[in-house]
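REVIEWER CHECKLIST
Item 1: Sequence provided? yes
Item 2: Single chain? yes
Item 3: Sequence as submitted:
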Amino acid sequence: MNPAAFVRAHTRLTPVPLVPEISLHLAEEPFGIWEQTEHELGLAGLPPPFWAFAWAGGQALARYLLDQAGLVAGRRVLDVAAGSGLVAIGAALAGAGPVTATEVDRFAAAAIGLNARANGTAVTVTLADVLDGDGDDADMVLAGDVWYEKSMATRFLGFLNRASARGRDVLVGDPGRAYLPRANLEPVARYDVIVPRALEDADIKRTTVWRLGP
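Item 4: Structure as written out by the authors:
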């Protein structure tokens, strides 16, 4: 089964709680789709299929972009480790363009394409690890819910710092993950986000949108 067919078979198009303007192909049961992904790839011990859920950081960041559309309208936007594409789609609906979403998971790339089309938005999907770069020609770099693992958080911070040093605006959404580099960030908005208890430690996560300072 190809990735797009897998996404269609194991998800349902569902409005996002904090951003009901956007609907995504989401899993109804977290562990079932996780097992199905491992079976499809013939691998065990895979990380969760991040693309199959609307994570709190992404919901908050997409909400902020839609509420503050002037920040992104007409600007080149890069959404890194985009998962479902929620943040990229939010940026596109707020008037950004072109919008690029990057992922290293081919199932995520397929999900982003399906989700972008379902919401009538143009999002270019790049299947690549871009964290050794600096955001290239993007005017704004976005990252939703990426601070959950130490080594990856270190790479993300380096990437985002390089993007900021080149004059790119950098926004991240985060519900208080363990490796959030708070010393480098300025809060710009906070939201209470409904999340799946099966994946989180609560039904609602207080989630912050942060701007990375120079």
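Item 5: Key structural point noted by reviewer: The chain has a mean pLDDT of 91.
Item 6: Recommendation: ____
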